[in-house]
Design brief:
The structure is a homodimer of 341-residue chains. By secondary structure, chain A is of the alpha+beta class. Chain A is built from ten helices and eleven strands.
């Protein structure tokens, strides 16, 4: 890597120390990592499997706050990629980490960041195998590439939903959007009159999304199409329908909201748009083969997160959106987050 | 992706337009990309092959100048990753691109950036299959993950060099370090008295490194260890020796310098350190099985870039460095680039 003169130097660390002390332990001895001592990593794919790959880039000030707890930043950077793998029915195998540190990221920051990655990777059996660490004038930027495995031909795609397929969503929707508002200290959140525990819950949903990896076997077995909700329920639903070439309706009354979110909505009904279009949910929205609905619902009843039926896929050309109590599709000013929007 | 309030908006583009107009053409219809319409990409690995993966992050102001020609930025971002694959004997297959744009990157910038990627990928048969595009308050950051294939067990690692193995390097060393000095307009480069064509050559070596992919079959057949030179000949040589558990000597007189670099060195002998430790060469440094030396040299004679014999691997515990005309290892103040150094 070359360098122009404005590189900021973090005092006592060396590139080698950072790799040895903080990142090598995250390989957990995985052979693919080659001890983080080579130009590249090496992945051996079991016969009759395919590799599912996903990549995000998160930048301080845009995707997270520079002063978010570093363990939470590490957790989230990996979680959002594991969520993509989960939505595709892919079992996490390993990941690459590219880190552009800024000068404020010293040893304590790195240790906490690595602990956030480590705690999540150990839950899901996924190891660091390589990457790149640089120091810049800021802001902090993190790019993770995550790798998952599927038996050949079993990846669950966005396209594939058929008219009549029931639609489901994991967990609850909109918590993270509220958590972000609280974390941003927008002045009017006091009117939601939340208890401390509710505030904590919503902020934690923003800071530490939980990738729904336990859903993977059921997605592979039953799902016709699937997407992870990163840009908001409504916008991501419309993407799934568009790629599948279908329409569809989510019933407003069936959208799963948490207790704290429901309380906010009671106090401030205008928040509905935020809840369904704010993004950052990292829940999974998917359609299931209509014939398998009963079997699917029975199978997922034992999961430790809810899976809610929310609506039905319709034919191409029909509307795609959220229907109110009157059965009509609601209009929204703002469908989902667009970085260019 | 979530967003805090300081997201900068680039006027008339939408995320979808950017993907459709600039990036989808770079998939060249590769099925793995799923039309850039899914949460992830899908790579099918041929039987008895392994996947070699490498990832870099480049940030404006650190790894390149924000006002470098965008086609050159695109070229370089991909080239440095292809260089890693080449060093490992891996045939490029595809890549992921994560792009954190800043507000100055409009349509014309994106078109030129994509053209730089496109021109290089078409030469080497490597296609875009996915990634992530976001807009931030800057600076521009680019992370590429590149994927290459090797027949199982044939990846050329850094470790593996044996005492007595001859050492080779492709192309010429140090041009990019001089190009960077010229590009940075350091005041004393006028004393090098370079002709315009030499200036152009050196800057071009900095801006547009050429990954040495034609070397791949010969590395697989003959090399015992290999590294791509990104942090400087000397430092990367020491890394190769350290991982291989050997010593070794590169003979100063055999280091291949270009005519322009040699001219600079004649005028300013103090530049020697810059040439061997400045980095950004993206040439390949490797050791060859001693018994195969003649066959190897015959085989690579027809390549369209030079491959120079520069020294020999020695036993563990012996020195590792560059020997002057007197046969002694030279001392350097600064061995190679360290982001934390």
């Amino acid at each position: 890597m070359n360098k122009t003169p404005d590189v900021v130097k973090a005092a006592p660390l060396s590139e080698q120390t950072v790799i040895t002390d903080f990142f090598e332990p995250l390989t957990q001895g995985d052979k693919s990592a080659l001890g983080l001592l080579d130009d590249a990593a090496l992945i051996d794919i079991p016969d009759n499997h395919e590799l599912v790959v996903t990549k995000d880039i998160l930048v301080a000030g845009t995707h997270f706050f520079a002063d978010d707890p570093p363990a939470d930043i590490g957790h989230k950077a990996l979680a959002v990629n594991l969520s993509d793998l989960a939505a595709k029915g892919a079992a996490p195998r390993c990941y690459l980490l590219a880190l552009a540190l800024d000068k404020t990221c010293g040893e304590a920051w790195l240790r906490a960041f690595a602990s956030g990655l480590g705690a999540l990777q150990r839950v899901h059996g996924c190891r660091l195998i390589g990457g790149d660490t640089v120091v810049t004038g800021g802001p902090l930027a993190i790019s993770i590439t995550a790798f998952g495995l599927v038996p050949r031909g079993t990846m669950v795609k966005r396209g594939g939903a058929q008219p009549g397929d029931p639609i489901y969503v994991t967990g609850t929707v909109g918590d993270a959007a509220l958590g972000l508002k609280i974390r941003s200290q927008i002045p009017d959140y006091s009117k939601w009159e939340l208890e401390d525990s509710a505030v904590q819950y919503l902020v934690s949903r923003y800071l530490r999304p939980q990738p729904r990896l336990a859903l993977i076997p059921y997605l592979r077995q039953y799902a016709t199409a699937s997407i992870d909700i990163s840009d908001g329920l409504l916008g991501d639903f419309q993407k799934l329908c568009s790629v599948s070439g279908v329409g569809g309706t989510i019933e407003e009354s069936r959208i799963p909201f948490s207790e704290p979110a429901r309380k906010c909505l009671d106090r401030d009904p205008g928040l509905f748009d935020t809840l369904v279009s704010g993004g950052d949910d990292y829940e999974i929205l998917f359609a299931v083969n209509a014939d398998a609905r009963d079997a699917f619902e029975k199978d997922v009843a034992g999961l430790d997160f809810p899976v809610a039926f929310v609506g039905l896929i319709a034919k191409e050309g029909e509307d795609c959106g959220i229907a109110g109590a009157d059965g009509h599709i609601r209009a929204f000013d703002h469908v989902s987050y667009d970085h260019f929007g």
